[in-house]
Amino acid sequence: MQKPTQIYGIRAVLEAINSNEPIDKIFIQRGLRGDLFRELEGTIRKNQINASYVPIEKLDRLTKNNHQGVVANISPITFYELEALVENVMEHKKQPLFLLLDQLSDVRNFGAIIRTAECTGVDGIIIQKKGAAPVTADTIKTSAGAAFKVPMAKVDHIKDAVFYLQASGVQVIAATEKTSKTIYELSFKRPCAIVMGAEGKGISPSTLKAVDEKAKLPLLGEIGSLNVSVACAVFLYEAVRQRNQFRIMNS
């Protein structure tokens, strides 16, 4: 049976949080008051759940049910803990490949990236708890079901994942135009993780400072950037190309 993707009502959402349901985001009506509402706010802060305060019209569009001022989106997938995901992959793969998404916000871009990640053998996708695109029905559809196949983890900050991966022997490469190096000057043959930034904003400055390498795609036309899902596909397939070439040379 497919898991529900939405719950509504203050008590129901509180119960879902306390039951460790994988909540992606909570929408709260502006101006709510009362003890139960304050309890919900405190629980949201304690569990660092992504929440937005919105007009009642937004909630009315999200559900036709009696939402009582609160609607929560539940992820249809289960997220791993970062440590468990990385340790399991490192134990079984000599050349693991991870993908870090720094506050990517568009669910269709997210779905397209997951689909490409599955096709290129990515071993795990890591996103941030706050500010990241949720796994919605649109994400699942755009991913062509790949969202159920690629393990994913959530972290408080992408920078934390960068440090943990580096400590685990994984090279972290940022996709950014803020470098003179192109993608074709770097090696993706060792265990590595690729960081993709948010639409418009790119990778956060603190994460850029933490990575091992930065690389950009050569842009030969007049438009200054690619869609993030397209850029991600180019990076991932360059990793595939280099690793296949390496295997052929050493076979």
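[next item in queue]
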Amino acid sequence: MARYPDELVRKRILFDGSEATIRPIKADDAPIEADFVRHLSPESRYTRFMATVNELPPTKLRYLTDIDYDKHMAFVATVIREGKEVEIGVSRYVVDPNGTSCEFAIAVDDAWQGSGVAGILMATLIDTARARGLKAMEGIVLGSNHKMLKFARQLGFSLHRDMEEPDTVNVTRPL
């Protein structure tokens, strides 16, 4: 079992003054990850998973939460609501087989979009990937996901249409 990277846990203040904890995900987070996905709007679930998803199957939930912190890294943003930790966003990367680049994904609860949490999650992910020696980060975004394409541009990603997959856009940025 991989050592939990406590040194990567941070408190951050969002645009509305809320305090969020940004930390690596852990296997024990399966219940809050499942609740997070359930709480996303159908559109947000579709843009994140590129499929109609209502509930994460147990194997997918385990894959998303039981990670090695090396080849697969994920950060959750959480807030305390009514005495309970609630996930409001998640970002992750998985290192490509070449070992020099990674593919990322991000999702933010609909109520927290525009709060600054996506930028914090992506900055944390990019800094961690760079510190691990990765040279590039890439992602696949639905062409209809204009908010994510704009966000990727703002983060310095270049956008390329894939002629084989006309519904998606490949986004890439050097680290």
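[queue empty]
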